[in-house]
Amino acid sequence: MARITLDNLAHSYNPNAASERDYALKELNYEWEDGAAYALLGSSGCGKSTLLNIISGLLMPSQGRILFDGIDVTGAPTAERNIAQVFQFPVVYDTMTVHDNLAFPLRNRGHNETYVAERVQEIARMIGMEDMLRKKARGLGADAKQKISLGRGMVRKDVNALLFDEPLTVIDPHMKWELRTQLKKLHHDFGHTMIYVTHDQTEALTFADKVVVMYDGRVVQIGTPEELFERPAHTFVGYFIGSPGMNVIPAKVEGAKAYINGCEIALGAGYAPLDGKVEIGVRPEFARLSETDGLPVRVRRVEDAGRHKIIRAEFFGQDINIIADEDDPVRADMTRVTFDPSRVNVYANDWRVAPESAEAA
């Protein structure tokens, strides 16, 4: 296990990078706690895999350092970093049996065969492959091969970190849930530092102690699932986390009030004067249809999601989503939407603004 420090880290695939726009990974300074489970979350091309490959030693950063427990490993090869990495697509030895694939990292480090057999059996049970240990990997499907890759990554107890690069892409949905559960159990039992790259918010939020949200090569927020949901630091976080994501609406903010197309919205706190692009953000969970109060809206459709309803509405061309309880009425005369003032966030140029006062005046 290791504490991983990212010191002034940045990377460009362009050797003649002249500006920040040329960087796939923009400057990052952060310390990953020893024994914590992190998820790197973001859309394709945001820099997640670039950062993971720098941590693993597969990629040398353009600038900055990476340290394990205070030791500079920036120039150290992957083998010397004592990490295990599982990739998006399975990497297995086709001519070996499942047992020998799982045993390979242990035998490579000189463990005795009694320990190897016990550990392989334990991991095979975790990934549901106990009855396949004597089969050659060559004849297995992609999902079975990926389970072998996961197992081989988990088989060692002494690694500094376990790195996962979208490892469940080829796994069927039911097995995804099972393997995520096993990964969390592994983390609980052995306390490995784990970093899990994904574009799937469900995977990130159910796996990690802290989620690292990346956008356009930059880390825009690091926090617990609750923090990302309650207080998105950037409008992208609000949009990307949640289904549907946060409503982001252009507004004029004056003190404890927001004004949208002439309509007044109460805020849960007061704000100093703001410059640039100003918006408010509110989760659909904290919006409610009303007969008399709030913004005038036109309900376009109602989607039944089982335990709740998603109401798709429009306010002067601005989409607004509302999540209502299964039994909440949606009537033709309900043509307005209200927001819980305490749940409204304010943004200037896409970044969340801290309130000036705790309560509205």
Q: Could you explain how this protein is built, in words?
A:
- This protein folds into two domains: 4-240, Rossmann fold (3-Layer(aba) Sandwich); 247-352, Nucleic acid-binding proteins (OB fold (Dihydrolipoamide Acetyltransferase, E2P)).
- 24% of the residues lie in helices and 34% in strands.
- It is built from nine helices and 22 strands.
- The chain has helices spanning 48-56, 78-81, 98-107, 113-126, 142-154, 173-190, 201-207, 225-230, 235-240; strands spanning 4-11, 25-32, 37-41, 63-68, 71-72, 83-86, 161-165, 193-198, 210-215, 218-223, 247-250, 252-260, 263-271, 278-282, 287-290, 295-296, 298-304, 308-315, 318-325, 336-339, 345-348, 351-352.
- The strands form six sheets. The protein has a six-stranded mixed sheet with strand order 6-7-8-3-9-10, with helices on both faces.
- A hairpin with a 2-residue loop joins strand 12 and strand 13.
- The mean pLDDT is 90.
